[in-house]
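@channel anyone free to eyeball this complex?
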Amino acid sequence: MTATTAPIAHGDGHAHGGGHHHTSLGLDNRKIAIWTFIGSECMLFASLISTYLIYKGRSPNGPFPHEPWTNPSTGEVMKPILDIPVTSASTFVLLMSSVAMVMALNAVQTKYEPKVTTWDKIKGSSKLWLAATALLGTIFLMFQAYEFTSFVHEGLTIRTNLFGSSFFTLTGFHGAHVTVGVLWLLTLLAIDFKRGLEPKDALLVDISALYWHFVDVVWIVIFPLIYLIK
Amino acid sequence: MATHSDAHAHGEHEHATVATYGKIALVLTIITICEVSAYYIPAWETSSIYVPSMLSMSALKFFLVVAYYMHLKYDHKLFKALFSGPFAVASLTLIGLLFLFSKLVIRLGLLT
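replying in thread with the prediction:
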Protein backbone atom coordinates (compact mmCIF):
# COMPACT_ATOMS: atom_id res chain seq x y z
CA MET A 1 0.00 0.00 0.00
CA THR A 2 1.39 3.36 -0.96
CA ALA A 3 0.85 6.25 1.39
CA THR A 4 0.83 9.83 0.19
CA THR A 5 2.09 11.76 3.15
CA ALA A 6 1.66 15.36 2.06
CA PRO A 7 -0.78 16.96 4.47
CA ILE A 8 -3.76 18.77 3.03
CA ALA A 9 -3.84 22.28 4.46
CA HIS A 10 -7.09 23.56 5.84
CA GLY A 11 -8.91 26.73 4.97
CA ASP A 12 -6.81 28.85 7.29
CA GLY A 13 -3.63 27.59 5.64
CA HIS A 14 -2.44 25.59 8.67
CA ALA A 15 -1.87 21.87 8.60
CA HIS A 16 -3.44 21.28 12.02
CA GLY A 17 -3.33 18.05 13.96
CA GLY A 18 -6.41 17.23 11.93
CA GLY A 19 -4.45 17.55 8.65
CA HIS A 20 -5.20 14.50 6.52
CA HIS A 21 -2.56 11.99 5.46
CA HIS A 22 -4.38 9.81 2.99
CA THR A 23 -3.30 6.45 1.68
CA SER A 24 -4.04 5.30 -1.86
CA LEU A 25 -7.25 3.82 -0.43
CA GLY A 26 -8.39 7.25 0.67
CA LEU A 27 -8.04 6.26 4.30
CA ASP A 28 -6.11 8.33 6.79
CA ASN A 29 -2.87 6.53 7.62
CA ARG A 30 -3.11 7.54 11.29
CA LYS A 31 -6.36 5.64 11.59
CA ILE A 32 -4.82 2.62 9.88
CA ALA A 33 -1.94 2.92 12.35
CA ILE A 34 -4.20 2.95 15.42
CA TRP A 35 -6.16 -0.09 14.21
CA THR A 36 -2.88 -1.92 13.49
CA PHE A 37 -1.68 -0.96 16.97
CA ILE A 38 -4.93 -2.20 18.52
CA GLY A 39 -4.55 -5.48 16.61
CA SER A 40 -1.07 -5.93 18.07
CA GLU A 41 -2.38 -5.05 21.52
CA CYS A 42 -4.94 -7.87 21.18
CA MET A 43 -2.03 -10.29 20.96
CA LEU A 44 -0.24 -8.71 23.93
CA PHE A 45 -3.27 -8.99 26.19
CA ALA A 46 -4.13 -12.47 24.89
CA SER A 47 -0.68 -13.62 26.00
CA LEU A 48 -1.08 -12.01 29.43
CA ILE A 49 -4.59 -13.43 29.90
CA SER A 50 -3.38 -16.88 28.75
CA THR A 51 -0.57 -16.75 31.28
CA TYR A 52 -3.00 -15.85 34.07
CA LEU A 53 -5.41 -18.64 33.15
CA ILE A 54 -2.67 -21.25 32.77
CA TYR A 55 -1.32 -20.43 36.25
CA LYS A 56 -4.82 -20.19 37.75
CA GLY A 57 -5.23 -22.63 40.63
CA ARG A 58 -1.56 -23.70 40.58
CA SER A 59 -0.28 -21.59 43.48
CA PRO A 60 0.83 -23.91 46.32
CA ASN A 61 0.53 -21.15 48.94
CA GLY A 62 -1.92 -18.28 49.47
CA PRO A 63 -3.28 -15.70 49.19
CA PHE A 64 -5.77 -17.17 46.74
CA PRO A 65 -8.29 -15.25 44.65
CA HIS A 66 -11.45 -17.19 45.46
CA GLU A 67 -10.56 -19.62 48.24
CA PRO A 68 -9.83 -19.05 51.95
CA TRP A 69 -6.15 -19.45 52.86
CA THR A 70 -4.09 -19.81 56.01
CA ASN A 71 -1.58 -17.11 56.86
CA PRO A 72 1.66 -19.06 57.52
CA SER A 73 3.04 -16.52 59.98
CA THR A 74 -0.07 -16.21 62.19
CA GLY A 75 -1.96 -19.40 61.40
CA GLU A 76 -5.04 -17.26 60.85
CA VAL A 77 -7.53 -18.35 58.19
CA MET A 78 -7.96 -15.48 55.74
CA LYS A 79 -10.83 -14.80 53.39
CA PRO A 80 -10.39 -14.91 49.57
CA ILE A 81 -8.44 -11.87 48.49
CA LEU A 82 -10.54 -10.56 45.58
CA ASP A 83 -13.04 -7.87 46.48
CA ILE A 84 -15.85 -8.36 43.94
CA PRO A 85 -18.07 -5.40 44.98
CA VAL A 86 -15.19 -2.91 44.67
CA THR A 87 -14.08 -4.28 41.30
CA SER A 88 -17.67 -4.36 40.05
CA ALA A 89 -17.93 -0.66 40.85
CA SER A 90 -14.67 0.09 39.03
CA THR A 91 -15.87 -1.96 36.04
CA PHE A 92 -19.04 0.13 35.88
CA VAL A 93 -16.95 3.32 36.07
CA LEU A 94 -14.80 2.21 33.13
CA LEU A 95 -17.88 1.26 31.09
CA MET A 96 -19.38 4.69 31.71
CA SER A 97 -16.11 6.32 30.66
CA SER A 98 -16.58 4.71 27.24
CA VAL A 99 -20.04 6.29 27.04
CA ALA A 100 -18.53 9.69 27.91
CA MET A 101 -15.88 9.14 25.24
CA VAL A 102 -18.38 8.53 22.42
CA MET A 103 -20.25 11.62 23.60
CA ALA A 104 -17.02 13.63 23.41
CA LEU A 105 -16.41 12.49 19.83
CA ASN A 106 -20.01 13.23 18.93
CA ALA A 107 -19.71 16.72 20.46
CA VAL A 108 -16.63 17.51 18.37
CA GLN A 109 -18.21 16.19 15.17
CA THR A 110 -21.43 18.18 15.66
CA LYS A 111 -19.87 21.35 17.06
CA TYR A 112 -21.50 23.66 14.50
CA GLU A 113 -24.97 22.17 14.70
CA PRO A 114 -27.48 24.51 16.39
CA LYS A 115 -27.98 23.91 20.10
CA VAL A 116 -31.41 24.94 21.27
CA THR A 117 -32.19 22.99 24.43
CA THR A 118 -30.10 22.56 27.57
CA TRP A 119 -29.57 18.90 26.65
CA ASP A 120 -28.25 20.00 23.24
CA LYS A 121 -25.74 22.24 25.00
CA ILE A 122 -24.68 19.49 27.41
CA LYS A 123 -24.49 16.98 24.57
CA GLY A 124 -22.43 19.38 22.49
CA SER A 125 -19.82 20.22 25.12
CA SER A 126 -16.66 18.36 24.15
CA LYS A 127 -14.86 19.83 27.18
CA LEU A 128 -17.46 18.36 29.53
CA TRP A 129 -17.33 14.87 28.00
CA LEU A 130 -13.54 14.78 27.66
CA ALA A 131 -13.18 15.88 31.28
CA ALA A 132 -15.78 13.29 32.35
CA THR A 133 -13.91 10.53 30.50
CA ALA A 134 -10.58 11.51 32.06
CA LEU A 135 -12.19 11.76 35.50
CA LEU A 136 -13.83 8.34 35.22
CA GLY A 137 -10.53 6.87 34.00
CA THR A 138 -8.79 8.42 37.01
CA ILE A 139 -11.43 7.01 39.37
CA PHE A 140 -10.83 3.56 37.84
CA LEU A 141 -7.10 3.98 38.50
CA MET A 142 -7.82 5.00 42.09
CA PHE A 143 -9.90 1.83 42.53
CA GLN A 144 -6.98 -0.16 41.15
CA ALA A 145 -4.50 1.61 43.44
CA TYR A 146 -6.78 0.82 46.40
CA GLU A 147 -7.01 -2.82 45.33
CA PHE A 148 -3.25 -3.20 44.85
CA THR A 149 -2.52 -1.51 48.18
CA SER A 150 -4.99 -3.68 50.08
CA PHE A 151 -3.55 -6.81 48.44
CA VAL A 152 -0.04 -5.88 49.52
CA HIS A 153 -1.29 -5.25 53.06
CA GLU A 154 -2.92 -8.69 53.05
CA GLY A 155 0.35 -10.29 51.97
CA LEU A 156 -0.01 -10.60 48.19
CA THR A 157 2.77 -9.07 46.11
CA ILE A 158 4.04 -9.80 42.61
CA ARG A 159 6.61 -12.17 44.20
CA THR A 160 4.31 -14.06 46.59
CA ASN A 161 2.97 -16.80 44.33
CA LEU A 162 1.91 -17.59 40.75
CA PHE A 163 -1.41 -15.88 41.27
CA GLY A 164 0.27 -12.68 42.47
CA SER A 165 2.77 -12.66 39.59
CA SER A 166 0.23 -13.21 36.85
CA PHE A 167 -2.46 -11.02 38.45
CA PHE A 168 -0.25 -7.97 39.02
CA THR A 169 1.35 -8.33 35.57
CA LEU A 170 -1.99 -8.51 33.74
CA THR A 171 -3.89 -5.87 35.69
CA GLY A 172 -0.77 -3.71 35.99
CA PHE A 173 -0.33 -3.67 32.21
CA HIS A 174 -3.99 -2.77 31.84
CA GLY A 175 -3.67 -0.01 34.45
CA ALA A 176 -0.63 1.37 32.60
CA HIS A 177 -2.73 1.52 29.42
CA VAL A 178 -5.50 3.35 31.28
CA THR A 179 -2.91 5.81 32.62
CA VAL A 180 -1.66 6.52 29.10
CA GLY A 181 -5.27 6.96 27.98
CA VAL A 182 -5.99 9.47 30.76
CA LEU A 183 -2.87 11.48 29.84
CA TRP A 184 -3.94 11.42 26.18
CA LEU A 185 -7.43 12.65 27.13
CA LEU A 186 -5.98 15.44 29.28
CA THR A 187 -3.87 16.52 26.30
CA LEU A 188 -7.00 16.70 24.13
CA LEU A 189 -8.78 18.60 26.88
CA ALA A 190 -5.92 21.12 27.03
CA ILE A 191 -6.14 21.59 23.25
CA ASP A 192 -9.89 22.05 23.55
CA PHE A 193 -9.45 24.77 26.19
CA LYS A 194 -6.63 26.45 24.25
CA ARG A 195 -8.08 26.69 20.78
CA GLY A 196 -11.25 24.58 20.77
CA LEU A 197 -11.66 21.22 19.07
CA GLU A 198 -13.58 21.51 15.81
CA PRO A 199 -15.06 18.99 13.37
CA LYS A 200 -11.79 19.02 11.40
CA ASP A 201 -10.12 17.69 14.59
CA ALA A 202 -12.59 14.81 14.87
CA LEU A 203 -9.99 12.31 13.69
CA LEU A 204 -7.68 13.27 16.58
CA VAL A 205 -10.48 12.56 19.04
CA ASP A 206 -11.57 9.44 17.11
CA ILE A 207 -8.09 7.91 17.36
CA SER A 208 -7.86 8.53 21.10
CA ALA A 209 -11.43 7.21 21.47
CA LEU A 210 -10.48 3.98 19.69
CA TYR A 211 -7.59 3.52 22.12
CA TRP A 212 -9.83 4.28 25.10
CA HIS A 213 -12.56 1.87 24.00
CA PHE A 214 -9.96 -0.82 23.42
CA VAL A 215 -8.75 -0.40 27.00
CA ASP A 216 -12.38 -0.81 28.04
CA VAL A 217 -12.97 -3.99 26.00
CA VAL A 218 -9.81 -5.52 27.45
CA TRP A 219 -11.30 -4.97 30.91
CA ILE A 220 -14.61 -6.43 29.71
CA VAL A 221 -12.67 -9.65 29.05
CA ILE A 222 -10.46 -9.49 32.15
CA PHE A 223 -13.24 -8.81 34.67
CA PRO A 224 -15.17 -12.11 34.37
CA LEU A 225 -12.07 -14.22 33.71
CA ILE A 226 -10.19 -13.04 36.81
CA TYR A 227 -12.86 -11.91 39.21
CA LEU A 228 -16.06 -13.81 38.49
CA ILE A 229 -14.99 -17.25 37.27
CA LYS A 230 -13.58 -19.32 40.11
CA MET B 1 -24.10 14.54 5.85
CA ALA B 2 -21.61 13.02 3.49
CA THR B 3 -22.63 9.90 1.65
CA HIS B 4 -21.27 6.58 2.84
CA SER B 5 -18.74 6.37 0.02
CA ASP B 6 -17.65 9.97 0.54
CA ALA B 7 -17.23 9.31 4.20
CA HIS B 8 -15.05 6.30 3.49
CA ALA B 9 -12.99 8.25 1.04
CA HIS B 10 -12.13 10.66 3.83
CA GLY B 11 -11.35 8.01 6.38
CA GLU B 12 -14.50 8.96 8.27
CA HIS B 13 -17.70 7.06 8.73
CA GLU B 14 -21.31 7.21 9.69
CA HIS B 15 -21.93 6.94 13.39
CA ALA B 16 -24.66 5.65 15.59
CA THR B 17 -26.84 8.34 17.14
CA VAL B 18 -26.64 9.57 20.71
CA ALA B 19 -29.85 7.65 21.42
CA THR B 20 -28.13 4.46 20.23
CA TYR B 21 -25.14 5.20 22.47
CA GLY B 22 -27.56 5.55 25.40
CA LYS B 23 -29.29 2.27 24.61
CA ILE B 24 -25.94 0.48 24.33
CA ALA B 25 -24.88 1.96 27.69
CA LEU B 26 -28.07 0.63 29.25
CA VAL B 27 -27.53 -2.84 27.78
CA LEU B 28 -23.89 -2.86 28.96
CA THR B 29 -25.01 -1.90 32.47
CA ILE B 30 -27.71 -4.59 32.56
CA ILE B 31 -25.27 -7.27 31.36
CA THR B 32 -22.73 -6.20 33.98
CA ILE B 33 -25.39 -6.41 36.70
CA CYS B 34 -26.30 -9.91 35.44
CA GLU B 35 -22.63 -10.96 35.51
CA VAL B 36 -22.10 -9.78 39.08
CA SER B 37 -25.48 -11.14 40.24
CA ALA B 38 -24.66 -14.56 38.81
CA TYR B 39 -21.52 -14.65 40.97
CA TYR B 40 -23.67 -14.28 44.09
CA ILE B 41 -26.35 -16.81 43.12
CA PRO B 42 -25.01 -20.20 44.31
CA ALA B 43 -27.36 -22.22 42.10
CA TRP B 44 -26.09 -20.39 39.04
CA GLU B 45 -22.47 -20.07 40.15
CA THR B 46 -22.10 -23.82 40.70
CA SER B 47 -24.03 -24.89 37.62
CA SER B 48 -22.48 -26.09 34.38
CA ILE B 49 -23.87 -23.10 32.50
CA TYR B 50 -22.11 -20.55 34.71
CA VAL B 51 -18.81 -20.30 32.83
CA PRO B 52 -20.41 -20.39 29.34
CA SER B 53 -22.94 -17.75 30.41
CA MET B 54 -20.19 -15.47 31.78
CA LEU B 55 -18.14 -15.88 28.61
CA SER B 56 -21.22 -15.21 26.46
CA MET B 57 -22.14 -12.05 28.36
CA SER B 58 -18.55 -10.85 28.16
CA ALA B 59 -18.47 -11.56 24.41
CA LEU B 60 -21.72 -9.65 23.90
CA LYS B 61 -20.36 -6.62 25.78
CA PHE B 62 -17.14 -6.84 23.78
CA PHE B 63 -19.08 -6.94 20.50
CA LEU B 64 -21.32 -4.00 21.43
CA VAL B 65 -18.41 -1.73 22.37
CA VAL B 66 -16.35 -2.66 19.32
CA ALA B 67 -19.25 -2.45 16.86
CA TYR B 68 -20.96 0.70 18.11
CA TYR B 69 -18.58 2.71 20.30
CA MET B 70 -15.54 1.95 18.15
CA HIS B 71 -17.80 2.32 15.08
CA LEU B 72 -16.37 -0.79 13.47
CA LYS B 73 -19.88 -1.74 12.30
CA TYR B 74 -19.90 1.35 10.11
CA ASP B 75 -16.21 1.52 9.24
CA HIS B 76 -14.12 0.55 6.25
CA LYS B 77 -13.52 -3.17 5.74
CA LEU B 78 -9.75 -2.64 6.01
CA PHE B 79 -10.20 -1.49 9.62
CA LYS B 80 -12.40 -4.50 10.29
CA ALA B 81 -9.68 -6.75 8.88
CA LEU B 82 -6.93 -5.00 10.85
CA PHE B 83 -8.83 -5.71 14.06
CA SER B 84 -10.51 -9.05 13.41
CA GLY B 85 -7.39 -10.72 11.93
CA PRO B 86 -5.10 -10.24 14.94
CA PHE B 87 -8.06 -10.74 17.28
CA ALA B 88 -8.77 -14.14 15.69
CA VAL B 89 -5.10 -15.13 15.96
CA ALA B 90 -4.99 -13.97 19.59
CA SER B 91 -8.23 -15.77 20.47
CA LEU B 92 -7.18 -19.04 18.84
CA THR B 93 -3.79 -18.87 20.56
CA LEU B 94 -5.49 -18.29 23.91
CA ILE B 95 -7.93 -21.15 23.37
CA GLY B 96 -5.12 -23.45 22.25
CA LEU B 97 -3.03 -22.65 25.32
CA LEU B 98 -6.02 -23.20 27.60
CA PHE B 99 -6.64 -26.63 26.11
CA LEU B 100 -2.97 -27.49 26.54
CA PHE B 101 -2.35 -26.18 30.03
CA SER B 102 -5.35 -24.77 31.85
CA LYS B 103 -7.92 -26.20 34.22
CA LEU B 104 -10.60 -23.86 32.90
CA VAL B 105 -11.53 -26.16 30.02
CA ILE B 106 -12.19 -28.91 32.56
CA ARG B 107 -14.68 -26.67 34.34
CA LEU B 108 -16.27 -25.92 30.96
CA GLY B 109 -16.78 -29.66 30.52
CA LEU B 110 -14.70 -29.72 27.34
CA LEU B 111 -12.09 -32.04 28.83
CA THR B 112 -12.18 -34.54 31.68
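from a first look: Chain A touches chain B through 57 residues (CB under 8 Å).
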